[in-house]
UniProtKB/TrEMBL annotation:
This is phenylalanine--tRNA ligase. GO terms for cellular component: mitochondrial matrix. It is found in: Mitochondrion matrix. It comes from the Eukaryota. Residues 288-378 form the FDX-ACB domain. It comes from Gossypium tomentosum (Hawaiian cotton). It catalyses: tRNA(Phe) + L-phenylalanine + ATP = L-phenylalanyl-tRNA(Phe) + AMP + diphosphate + H(+). It is an enzyme of class 6 (ligase). One of its GO terms (molecular function) is phenylalanine-tRNA ligase activity. The lineage of its organism: Eukaryota, Viridiplantae, Streptophyta, Embryophyta, Tracheophyta. One of its GO terms (biological process) is phenylalanyl-tRNA aminoacylation. Is responsible for the charging of tRNA(Phe) with phenylalanine in mitochondrial translation. PROSITE patterns: AA_TRNA_LIGASE_II, FDX_ACB.
Length: 378
Protein backbone atom coordinates (compact mmCIF):
# COMPACT_ATOMS: atom_id res chain seq x y z
CA UNK A 1 0.00 0.00 0.00
CA UNK A 2 1.24 3.47 -0.91
CA UNK A 3 2.46 5.76 1.85
CA UNK A 4 -0.38 7.51 3.61
CA UNK A 5 0.52 11.04 2.61
CA UNK A 6 0.73 11.58 -1.13
CA UNK A 7 1.78 14.52 -3.21
CA UNK A 8 -0.56 14.68 -6.21
CA UNK A 9 0.02 17.42 -8.74
CA UNK A 10 1.59 19.60 -6.07
CA UNK A 11 -1.21 18.96 -3.57
CA UNK A 12 -0.56 16.99 -0.36
CA UNK A 13 -3.27 14.42 0.38
CA UNK A 14 -3.48 12.10 3.36
CA UNK A 15 -5.17 8.73 3.22
CA UNK A 16 -7.88 9.93 5.62
CA UNK A 17 -8.68 12.73 3.18
CA UNK A 18 -9.58 10.16 0.53
CA UNK A 19 -10.68 6.95 2.28
CA UNK A 20 -13.17 7.54 5.06
CA UNK A 21 -15.90 5.82 6.94
CA UNK A 22 -18.52 8.24 5.72
CA UNK A 23 -21.70 7.51 3.74
CA UNK A 24 -20.69 10.01 1.05
CA UNK A 25 -17.38 8.18 0.48
CA UNK A 26 -17.04 5.01 -1.59
CA UNK A 27 -13.27 4.89 -2.17
CA UNK A 28 -11.78 1.59 -0.97
CA UNK A 29 -8.15 1.02 0.10
CA UNK A 30 -7.45 -0.87 -3.13
CA UNK A 31 -8.17 2.31 -5.08
CA UNK A 32 -6.35 4.64 -2.70
CA UNK A 33 -3.23 2.50 -3.15
CA UNK A 34 -3.23 3.35 -6.86
CA UNK A 35 -3.18 7.13 -6.37
CA UNK A 36 0.14 8.67 -7.23
CA UNK A 37 1.57 5.66 -9.09
CA UNK A 38 1.32 7.59 -12.39
CA UNK A 39 2.17 4.73 -14.74
CA UNK A 40 1.82 7.17 -17.64
CA UNK A 41 4.88 9.09 -16.43
CA UNK A 42 7.22 6.10 -16.61
CA UNK A 43 9.14 6.25 -19.86
CA UNK A 44 9.89 2.51 -19.79
CA UNK A 45 6.26 1.51 -19.24
CA UNK A 46 3.98 0.76 -22.20
CA UNK A 47 1.63 3.58 -21.11
CA UNK A 48 4.49 6.08 -20.90
CA UNK A 49 5.89 4.87 -24.23
CA UNK A 50 2.48 5.34 -25.84
CA UNK A 51 2.03 8.79 -24.27
CA UNK A 52 5.41 9.82 -25.65
CA UNK A 53 4.52 8.37 -29.06
CA UNK A 54 1.42 10.56 -29.19
CA UNK A 55 3.43 13.59 -28.03
CA UNK A 56 5.82 12.88 -30.90
CA UNK A 57 2.96 13.09 -33.41
CA UNK A 58 1.80 16.46 -32.05
CA UNK A 59 5.35 17.83 -31.75
CA UNK A 60 6.16 16.89 -35.34
CA UNK A 61 2.94 18.11 -36.94
CA UNK A 62 2.17 21.08 -34.69
CA UNK A 63 5.59 22.26 -33.47
CA UNK A 64 5.51 24.07 -30.11
CA UNK A 65 1.73 24.35 -30.20
CA UNK A 66 0.35 21.93 -27.64
CA UNK A 67 0.99 22.43 -23.95
CA UNK A 68 1.36 19.07 -22.17
CA UNK A 69 0.02 18.28 -18.72
CA UNK A 70 0.53 14.88 -17.10
CA UNK A 71 0.63 15.72 -13.41
CA UNK A 72 -2.77 17.26 -12.66
CA UNK A 73 -4.33 16.03 -9.42
CA UNK A 74 -6.87 13.20 -9.99
CA UNK A 75 -8.93 14.36 -7.00
CA UNK A 76 -11.28 16.94 -8.52
CA UNK A 77 -14.58 18.62 -7.69
CA UNK A 78 -17.96 17.40 -8.90
CA UNK A 79 -18.11 20.74 -10.70
CA UNK A 80 -14.91 20.04 -12.65
CA UNK A 81 -15.71 16.42 -13.44
CA UNK A 82 -19.38 16.89 -14.37
CA UNK A 83 -20.91 20.39 -14.24
CA UNK A 84 -18.19 22.22 -16.19
CA UNK A 85 -18.50 19.71 -19.04
CA UNK A 86 -22.32 19.87 -19.02
CA UNK A 87 -22.96 16.31 -17.80
CA UNK A 88 -26.71 16.30 -17.04
CA UNK A 89 -27.79 16.10 -13.39
CA UNK A 90 -29.37 12.67 -13.92
CA UNK A 91 -26.58 11.13 -16.04
CA UNK A 92 -25.59 7.62 -14.83
CA UNK A 93 -21.92 8.52 -14.70
CA UNK A 94 -22.69 10.74 -11.69
CA UNK A 95 -24.02 7.83 -9.61
CA UNK A 96 -22.21 6.30 -6.64
CA UNK A 97 -22.41 3.05 -8.57
CA UNK A 98 -20.22 4.39 -11.38
CA UNK A 99 -17.94 7.01 -9.80
CA UNK A 100 -15.67 7.12 -6.75
CA UNK A 101 -16.75 9.92 -4.42
CA UNK A 102 -14.35 11.27 -1.81
CA UNK A 103 -17.28 13.27 -0.42
CA UNK A 104 -20.48 14.60 -1.93
CA UNK A 105 -18.62 17.43 -3.74
CA UNK A 106 -15.33 15.67 -4.60
CA UNK A 107 -14.55 12.71 -6.85
CA UNK A 108 -11.67 10.79 -8.34
CA UNK A 109 -11.90 12.09 -11.92
CA UNK A 110 -13.64 9.64 -14.23
CA UNK A 111 -12.22 11.28 -17.34
CA UNK A 112 -9.53 13.77 -18.25
CA UNK A 113 -12.30 16.02 -19.62
CA UNK A 114 -12.52 17.21 -15.98
CA UNK A 115 -9.67 19.60 -16.82
CA UNK A 116 -11.04 21.14 -20.03
CA UNK A 117 -12.78 24.18 -18.56
CA UNK A 118 -10.14 24.89 -15.93
CA UNK A 119 -7.32 24.96 -18.51
CA UNK A 120 -9.33 27.09 -20.93
CA UNK A 121 -10.02 29.51 -18.10
CA UNK A 122 -6.29 29.64 -17.37
CA UNK A 123 -5.81 30.82 -20.96
CA UNK A 124 -4.63 27.61 -22.65
CA UNK A 125 -5.83 27.12 -26.22
CA UNK A 126 -3.88 24.02 -27.31
CA UNK A 127 -3.31 21.28 -24.76
CA UNK A 128 -2.92 17.59 -24.05
CA UNK A 129 -3.80 16.22 -20.60
CA UNK A 130 -2.72 12.72 -19.63
CA UNK A 131 -3.75 11.15 -16.35
CA UNK A 132 -5.09 8.25 -14.32
CA UNK A 133 -8.91 8.07 -14.26
CA UNK A 134 -11.18 6.07 -11.99
CA UNK A 135 -14.42 4.21 -12.68
CA UNK A 136 -16.39 1.62 -10.78
CA UNK A 137 -17.00 -1.25 -13.18
CA UNK A 138 -17.27 -4.99 -13.62
CA UNK A 139 -14.20 -7.21 -13.99
CA UNK A 140 -12.74 -8.74 -17.14
CA UNK A 141 -9.50 -8.68 -19.15
CA UNK A 142 -10.09 -5.16 -20.54
CA UNK A 143 -11.66 -3.39 -17.53
CA UNK A 144 -9.87 -2.16 -14.46
CA UNK A 145 -11.16 0.51 -12.05
CA UNK A 146 -8.13 2.69 -12.70
CA UNK A 147 -6.98 3.40 -16.23
CA UNK A 148 -5.34 6.22 -18.17
CA UNK A 149 -6.63 8.72 -20.68
CA UNK A 150 -5.25 11.48 -22.83
CA UNK A 151 -7.37 14.51 -23.62
CA UNK A 152 -6.61 16.94 -26.42
CA UNK A 153 -8.16 20.38 -26.95
CA UNK A 154 -7.58 22.95 -29.68
CA UNK A 155 -9.25 26.36 -29.82
CA UNK A 156 -9.68 28.40 -33.01
CA UNK A 157 -10.41 32.11 -33.41
CA UNK A 158 -12.36 33.82 -36.25
CA UNK A 159 -9.26 34.44 -38.39
CA UNK A 160 -8.75 30.66 -38.52
CA UNK A 161 -12.13 29.80 -40.02
CA UNK A 162 -13.01 33.03 -41.87
CA UNK A 163 -10.48 32.40 -44.61
CA UNK A 164 -11.76 28.84 -45.12
CA UNK A 165 -15.27 29.72 -46.26
CA UNK A 166 -16.65 27.14 -43.80
CA UNK A 167 -18.86 27.78 -40.81
CA UNK A 168 -16.89 27.55 -37.53
CA UNK A 169 -18.30 24.17 -36.48
CA UNK A 170 -17.57 22.52 -39.84
CA UNK A 171 -14.12 24.07 -39.84
CA UNK A 172 -13.33 22.64 -36.40
CA UNK A 173 -14.83 19.24 -37.29
CA UNK A 174 -12.71 18.98 -40.44
CA UNK A 175 -9.54 19.98 -38.65
CA UNK A 176 -10.33 17.49 -35.87
CA UNK A 177 -10.83 14.60 -38.27
CA UNK A 178 -7.69 15.40 -40.24
CA UNK A 179 -5.58 15.71 -37.09
CA UNK A 180 -6.85 12.47 -35.55
CA UNK A 181 -6.61 10.44 -38.75
CA UNK A 182 -2.97 11.52 -38.81
CA UNK A 183 -2.55 10.39 -35.22
CA UNK A 184 -4.10 6.98 -35.95
CA UNK A 185 -1.75 6.51 -38.92
CA UNK A 186 1.21 7.55 -36.76
CA UNK A 187 0.31 4.84 -34.24
CA UNK A 188 -1.10 2.05 -36.39
CA UNK A 189 0.29 2.60 -39.89
CA UNK A 190 -1.84 2.51 -43.04
CA UNK A 191 -5.10 1.25 -41.52
CA UNK A 192 -8.66 1.62 -42.77
CA UNK A 193 -10.63 4.12 -40.67
CA UNK A 194 -14.24 5.17 -40.22
CA UNK A 195 -16.07 7.89 -38.29
CA UNK A 196 -19.10 6.88 -36.23
CA UNK A 197 -21.62 9.41 -34.90
CA UNK A 198 -21.57 9.42 -31.12
CA UNK A 199 -22.91 11.33 -28.15
CA UNK A 200 -20.99 13.12 -25.41
CA UNK A 201 -22.53 15.87 -23.27
CA UNK A 202 -19.57 18.16 -23.92
CA UNK A 203 -19.29 17.97 -27.72
CA UNK A 204 -21.64 18.48 -30.66
CA UNK A 205 -21.27 17.00 -33.19
CA UNK A 206 -19.57 14.02 -31.53
CA UNK A 207 -17.73 11.14 -33.17
CA UNK A 208 -15.83 7.97 -32.49
CA UNK A 209 -12.89 7.01 -34.65
CA UNK A 210 -12.61 3.33 -35.48
CA UNK A 211 -9.80 1.54 -37.26
CA UNK A 212 -9.84 -1.84 -38.96
CA UNK A 213 -7.15 -3.72 -37.10
CA UNK A 214 -6.35 -7.42 -36.79
CA UNK A 215 -9.57 -8.40 -38.53
CA UNK A 216 -12.04 -6.19 -36.71
CA UNK A 217 -13.26 -2.62 -36.23
CA UNK A 218 -11.84 -1.15 -33.06
CA UNK A 219 -12.74 2.12 -31.32
CA UNK A 220 -9.70 4.35 -30.92
CA UNK A 221 -11.12 7.49 -29.34
CA UNK A 222 -14.10 9.75 -28.73
CA UNK A 223 -14.13 13.36 -29.87
CA UNK A 224 -16.13 16.26 -31.20
CA UNK A 225 -16.63 19.99 -31.50
CA UNK A 226 -16.77 21.49 -28.02
CA UNK A 227 -20.17 22.76 -26.86
CA UNK A 228 -20.23 26.58 -27.08
CA UNK A 229 -21.46 26.73 -23.49
CA UNK A 230 -18.12 25.36 -22.20
CA UNK A 231 -16.17 27.99 -24.12
CA UNK A 232 -18.56 30.64 -22.83
CA UNK A 233 -18.24 29.72 -19.15
CA UNK A 234 -14.47 29.59 -19.68
CA UNK A 235 -14.29 33.13 -21.05
CA UNK A 236 -13.74 32.18 -24.71
CA UNK A 237 -17.07 33.08 -26.33
CA UNK A 238 -15.78 34.20 -29.70
CA UNK A 239 -14.13 30.91 -30.61
CA UNK A 240 -14.71 27.31 -31.56
CA UNK A 241 -12.77 24.26 -30.35
CA UNK A 242 -12.36 20.57 -30.80
CA UNK A 243 -11.67 17.98 -28.11
CA UNK A 244 -10.78 14.32 -28.04
CA UNK A 245 -10.22 11.71 -25.35
CA UNK A 246 -8.53 8.36 -25.74
CA UNK A 247 -7.94 5.42 -23.42
CA UNK A 248 -4.26 4.55 -23.27
CA UNK A 249 -4.70 0.93 -22.06
CA UNK A 250 -7.07 0.03 -24.87
CA UNK A 251 -4.56 1.19 -27.46
CA UNK A 252 -1.49 -0.15 -25.66
CA UNK A 253 -3.09 -3.60 -25.36
CA UNK A 254 -3.28 -3.92 -29.14
CA UNK A 255 -0.05 -2.08 -29.97
CA UNK A 256 2.06 -4.13 -27.55
CA UNK A 257 -0.02 -7.36 -27.62
CA UNK A 258 -0.75 -7.15 -23.89
CA UNK A 259 -3.50 -9.74 -23.19
CA UNK A 260 -4.79 -8.60 -19.79
CA UNK A 261 -5.20 -5.10 -18.37
CA UNK A 262 -3.88 -6.17 -14.94
CA UNK A 263 -0.42 -6.60 -16.48
CA UNK A 264 0.04 -2.81 -16.66
CA UNK A 265 0.24 -2.84 -12.85
CA UNK A 266 2.68 -5.74 -12.68
CA UNK A 267 6.06 -5.20 -11.07
CA UNK A 268 7.24 -8.64 -12.24
CA UNK A 269 10.50 -8.21 -14.13
CA UNK A 270 9.34 -10.64 -16.75
CA UNK A 271 6.82 -7.95 -17.67
CA UNK A 272 8.66 -4.69 -16.95
CA UNK A 273 11.93 -5.74 -18.60
CA UNK A 274 10.25 -6.19 -21.98
CA UNK A 275 9.61 -2.46 -22.54
CA UNK A 276 11.98 0.41 -22.99
CA UNK A 277 11.85 4.10 -23.73
CA UNK A 278 10.95 4.95 -27.31
CA UNK A 279 10.25 1.33 -28.27
CA UNK A 280 6.71 1.73 -29.52
CA UNK A 281 4.78 -1.42 -30.30
CA UNK A 282 7.39 -4.03 -29.31
CA UNK A 283 5.30 -7.18 -28.91
CA UNK A 284 4.95 -8.56 -25.41
CA UNK A 285 6.04 -12.20 -25.07
CA UNK A 286 3.78 -13.78 -22.45
CA UNK A 287 5.62 -15.75 -19.82
CA UNK A 288 3.86 -19.06 -19.34
CA UNK A 289 0.16 -18.67 -18.79
CA UNK A 290 -0.81 -20.05 -15.40
CA UNK A 291 -4.03 -22.06 -15.16
CA UNK A 292 -7.26 -20.32 -14.14
CA UNK A 293 -9.50 -21.65 -11.41
CA UNK A 294 -13.26 -21.11 -11.59
CA UNK A 295 -15.62 -20.81 -8.64
CA UNK A 296 -19.36 -20.36 -8.99
CA UNK A 297 -21.57 -18.66 -6.45
CA UNK A 298 -25.36 -18.19 -6.42
CA UNK A 299 -27.48 -15.89 -4.31
CA UNK A 300 -30.85 -14.14 -4.13
CA UNK A 301 -30.27 -10.48 -4.89
CA UNK A 302 -32.04 -7.49 -3.32
CA UNK A 303 -33.16 -4.19 -4.87
CA UNK A 304 -29.89 -2.40 -4.17
CA UNK A 305 -27.68 -5.11 -5.66
CA UNK A 306 -25.34 -4.05 -8.48
CA UNK A 307 -22.61 -5.93 -10.29
CA UNK A 308 -20.17 -3.07 -9.68
CA UNK A 309 -20.65 -3.41 -5.92
CA UNK A 310 -20.13 -7.16 -6.16
CA UNK A 311 -16.93 -6.69 -8.14
CA UNK A 312 -15.57 -4.19 -5.66
CA UNK A 313 -16.10 -6.59 -2.75
CA UNK A 314 -14.36 -9.36 -4.68
CA UNK A 315 -11.49 -7.12 -5.75
CA UNK A 316 -11.09 -5.95 -2.16
CA UNK A 317 -10.35 -9.53 -1.12
CA UNK A 318 -8.52 -11.07 -4.05
CA UNK A 319 -7.10 -7.98 -5.79
CA UNK A 320 -5.34 -8.70 -9.05
CA UNK A 321 -5.84 -12.46 -8.67
CA UNK A 322 -9.32 -11.93 -10.13
CA UNK A 323 -9.41 -12.27 -13.88
CA UNK A 324 -13.12 -12.12 -14.57
CA UNK A 325 -16.51 -12.08 -12.88
CA UNK A 326 -19.36 -13.12 -15.15
CA UNK A 327 -23.06 -13.63 -14.70
CA UNK A 328 -23.77 -17.18 -15.90
CA UNK A 329 -27.34 -17.65 -14.69
CA UNK A 330 -30.19 -15.31 -13.82
CA UNK A 331 -33.80 -16.22 -13.04
CA UNK A 332 -36.80 -14.97 -11.10
CA UNK A 333 -39.01 -17.43 -9.22
CA UNK A 334 -42.80 -17.38 -8.77
CA UNK A 335 -42.47 -15.34 -5.58
CA UNK A 336 -40.58 -12.67 -7.53
CA UNK A 337 -37.18 -13.40 -5.99
CA UNK A 338 -34.26 -13.08 -8.39
CA UNK A 339 -31.25 -15.35 -8.27
CA UNK A 340 -27.87 -14.63 -9.87
CA UNK A 341 -25.08 -17.09 -10.39
CA UNK A 342 -21.63 -15.58 -10.95
CA UNK A 343 -18.55 -17.39 -12.15
CA UNK A 344 -15.34 -16.02 -10.68
CA UNK A 345 -12.13 -16.74 -12.56
CA UNK A 346 -9.04 -16.63 -10.36
CA UNK A 347 -5.70 -16.48 -12.10
CA UNK A 348 -2.40 -14.85 -11.31
CA UNK A 349 -0.41 -13.32 -14.14
CA UNK A 350 2.78 -14.23 -12.31
CA UNK A 351 2.53 -17.62 -10.61
CA UNK A 352 0.44 -20.74 -9.99
CA UNK A 353 -2.17 -20.46 -7.27
CA UNK A 354 -2.71 -23.31 -4.84
CA UNK A 355 -6.12 -24.89 -4.22
CA UNK A 356 -5.80 -23.95 -0.60
CA UNK A 357 -5.21 -20.29 -1.35
CA UNK A 358 -8.15 -20.09 -3.76
CA UNK A 359 -10.49 -21.92 -1.40
CA UNK A 360 -9.56 -19.51 1.33
CA UNK A 361 -10.22 -16.49 -0.93
CA UNK A 362 -13.51 -17.92 -2.12
CA UNK A 363 -14.59 -18.53 1.47
CA UNK A 364 -13.89 -14.89 2.31
CA UNK A 365 -15.69 -13.76 -0.83
CA UNK A 366 -18.80 -15.72 0.13
CA UNK A 367 -18.79 -14.32 3.63
CA UNK A 368 -18.25 -10.69 2.62
CA UNK A 369 -20.67 -10.78 -0.29
CA UNK A 370 -23.31 -12.00 2.11
CA UNK A 371 -22.50 -9.48 4.82
CA UNK A 372 -21.72 -6.37 2.82
CA UNK A 373 -24.30 -6.75 0.05
CA UNK A 374 -27.05 -8.33 2.16
CA UNK A 375 -27.78 -11.03 -0.35
CA UNK A 376 -28.85 -14.56 0.55
CA UNK A 377 -26.43 -17.27 -0.56
CA UNK A 378 -28.00 -20.37 -2.05
N1 LIG B 1 -14.42 12.03 -21.88
C1 LIG B 1 -14.85 11.09 -22.89
C2 LIG B 1 -14.79 9.68 -22.28
O1 LIG B 1 -14.20 9.49 -21.25
C3 LIG B 1 -13.97 11.13 -24.12
C4 LIG B 1 -14.09 12.43 -24.89
C5 LIG B 1 -13.23 13.48 -24.63
C6 LIG B 1 -15.05 12.60 -25.85
C7 LIG B 1 -13.34 14.67 -25.32
C8 LIG B 1 -15.18 13.76 -26.56
C9 LIG B 1 -14.32 14.81 -26.29
O2 LIG B 1 -15.35 8.74 -22.83
Amino acid sequence: VASSVLELGGIKIAKDDVVRDDPTNNVPDTIFSKLGLQLHRRNNHPLGILKNGIYEYFDTNFPNMFHKFDDLCPVVSVKQNFDDVLVPADHVSRSYNDTYYVDSQTVLRCHTSAHQAELLRRGHTHFLVTGDVYRRDSIDSTHYPVFHQMEGVRVFTPDNWEASGLDPTSYAAEDLKKSLEGLARHLFGAVEMRWIDAYFPFTNPSYELEIYFQGKWMEVLGCGVMEQEILKISGRSNSVAWAFGLGLERLAMVLFDIPDIRLFWSTDERFTSQFSEGQMGVKFKPFSKYPPCYKDMSFWINDSFTENNLCEVIRGIAGDLIEEVSLIDNFTNKKGMTSHCYRIAYRSMERSLTDEEINDLQWQVREQVQNKLNVVLR
